[in-house]
């Protein structure tokens, strides 16, 4: 099998476009024959998805009926069924009893004046999943945004919060195309970073006045919210100005409270200043340090060295107060009082606690783009590719840290705080869609019961997105009459095993044949009343991956391993 470097060289020799090849396999600077290696490459652009083609999804219809399903409605209510769900255009019009559990369903049930009927007898229906932390597939990871879109939809994700999805103009355009169903894509919420936008002209937003001006300008462009990261341009006074102006204009806010600025504004302080969502784990434990407000950095720590940055963050396990201590509960009470949402994105850092598992997941060979696979490999340039010398000691620190992080999330949920699901896929061995399902698994590991996991993945995300807009009753997020027809239809009960939601399914022993077989995967994803065959979406992605391998001169099957 070709090595990664051999594959890239061969692809270039055969005329592969340079823009599509990650240079993450270039050796460190002292080996790179004079090539300059930046700390992290500039962010890549994103190519819009191609137009939706004939045969990509069925509908919407004036009247569609989904027959014989058990509903898991996203509100925490117990499953119930069998029922028939009547959808008119893009709205759930009726949920009708279809029979009695344990007895045969009656044939010829009303209504009969439908334009489309989907026999899903014995299957389960959930609200469309909401991924609250996404970045679209940039042009150094895939040919265009349809790669990420189709993987999300194939895993039941019907709504995404881009933070950011793509450059501002592309995000706004793709959101509009998705609203019109001109592309095969989830519903898009466009959260952008301060200073973004060609029309803004590149001026820095490093004072409260400049930051407020950008928020006002970006609101006129049509963004839904703002992604903050407290870097050099966002000290506390600028962060506070952004959040204040955003609330006035009914824009949501989400913050990655990075190590650069967390010593001056941690999650508790950001919540008090009006932050809507804390994403990742940054800022939580810095709010509860045993020895003051600043983490104890090693004397040779370098934030620009990503193994330092991501390896040592797990030291917060030992540096923060004990679970269940008075300071622990006081922090959570303040965040709940300020209505702060927690978006943990545990999945994106899961490789930190078991790198070998992440590198060898079932889906990579068939569904991971070769250039995305190259991006994942240890690299001084590619963001998140920081496994330069990852040791068992570092993994143990991460496992301990996750134990504490999971306790924090479960305690917050138990006291009535809101927790949502986000994946941040496209980095650190996490492909789009697959990473989202792993987040559901990890919430259950944290102590959420399966129904609470589903609520976090559906209703909680919908509430967070629409409340920021001044709409306390969201049109999505639950399977109820009057809600939009964003649905996930599956053969296996996800409350019994979330692994059955993976596009690659889950392994189960067939007692008749005594052979292992794969079961599960989403059967249908309904977005805006349009029924997508999830298996076909996965087949489309698999063919896209093969086409890229052919273009790059690589074998169609498998991926090169170092």
From TrEMBL:
Molecular functions per Gene Ontology: hydrolase activity, acting on carbon-nitrogen (but not peptide) bonds
Pfam families for the chain: Amidohydro_1 (PF01979)
Superkingdom: Bacteria
Entry annotated with the keyword Isomerase: no
Domain Amidohydrolase-related: start-end pairs: 410-530
Keywords: Hydrolase, Signal
Signal peptide: 1-31
Name by which UniProt lists this protein: Amidohydrolase family protein
Protein source organism: Edaphosphingomonas laterariae
């Amino acid at each position: 099998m070709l090595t990664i470097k051999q594959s890239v060289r061969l692809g270039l020799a055969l005329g592969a476009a340079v823009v599509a090849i990650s240079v993450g396999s270039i050796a460190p600077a002292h080996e790179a024959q004079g090539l300059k290696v930046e700390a992290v490459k500039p962010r890549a652009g994103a190519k819009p998805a191609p137009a939706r083609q004939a045969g990509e999804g069925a509908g919407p219809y004036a009247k569609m009926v989904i027959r014989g399903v058990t509903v898991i409605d996203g509100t925490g209510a117990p499953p119930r069924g069998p029922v028939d769900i009547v959808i008119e255009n893009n709205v759930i019009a009726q949920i009708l009893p279809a029979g009695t559990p344990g007895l045969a369903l009656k044939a010829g049930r009303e209504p009969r004046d439908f334009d489309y009927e989907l026999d899903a007898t014995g299957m389960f229906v959930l609200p469309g999943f909401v991924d609250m932390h996404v970045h679209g597939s940039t042009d150094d990871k895939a040919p265009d945004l349809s790669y990420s879109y189709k993987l999300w939809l194939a895993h039941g994700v019907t709504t995404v919060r881009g933070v950011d999805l793509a450059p501002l103009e592309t995000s706004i355009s793709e959101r509009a195309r998705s609203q019109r169903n001109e592309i095969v894509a989830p519903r898009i919420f466009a959260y952008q970073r301060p200073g973004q936008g060609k029309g803004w002209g590149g001026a820095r937003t490093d004072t409260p006045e400049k930051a407020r001006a950008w928020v006002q300008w970006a609101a006129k462009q049509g963004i839904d919210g703002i992604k903050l990261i407290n870097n050099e341009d966002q000290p506390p006074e600028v962060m506070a100005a952004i959040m204040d102006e955003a609330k006035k204009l009914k824009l949501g806010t989400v913050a990655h409270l990075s190590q650069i600025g967390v010593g001056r504004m941690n999650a508790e302080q950001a919540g008090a200043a009006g932050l809507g969502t804390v994403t990742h784990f940054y800022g939580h434990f810095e709010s509860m340090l045993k020895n003051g407000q600043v983490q104890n950095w090693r004397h040779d720590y370098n934030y620009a060295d990503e193994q330092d940055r991501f390896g040592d963050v797990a030291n917060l396990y030992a540096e923060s107060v004990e679970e269940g201590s008075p300071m622990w509960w006081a922090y959570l009470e303040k965040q709940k009082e300020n209505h702060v949402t927690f978006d943990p994105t545990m999945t994106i850092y899961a490789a930190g606690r078991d790198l070998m598992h992440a590198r060898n997941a079932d889906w990579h060979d068939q569904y991971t783009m070769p250039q995305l696979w190259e991006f994942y490999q240890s690299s001084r340039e590619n963001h998140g590719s920081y496994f330069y010398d990852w040791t068992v000691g570092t993994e143990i620190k991460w496992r301990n840290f996750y134990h504490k992080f999971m306790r924090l999330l479960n305690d917050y949920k138990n006291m009535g705080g809101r927790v949502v699901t986000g994946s941040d896929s496209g980095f650190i061995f996490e492909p789009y869609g697959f990473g989202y399902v792993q987040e559901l698994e990890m919430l259950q590991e944290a102590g959420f019961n399966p129904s609470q996991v589903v609520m976090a993945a559906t209703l909680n995300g919908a509430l967070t997105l629409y409340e920021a807009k001044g709409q306390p009753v969201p049109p999505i997020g639950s399977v109820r009459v009057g809600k939009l027809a964003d649905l996930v239809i599956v053969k296996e009960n996800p409350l019994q095993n979330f692994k059955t939601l993976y596009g690659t399914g889950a392994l189960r022993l067939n007692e008749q044949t005594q052979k292992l077989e794969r079961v599960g995967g989403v059967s249908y994803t309904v977005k805006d009343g349009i029924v997508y065959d999830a298996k076909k979406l996965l087949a489309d992605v698999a063919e896209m991956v093969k086409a890229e391998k052919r273009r790059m001169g690589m074998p169609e099957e498998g991926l090169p391993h170092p």
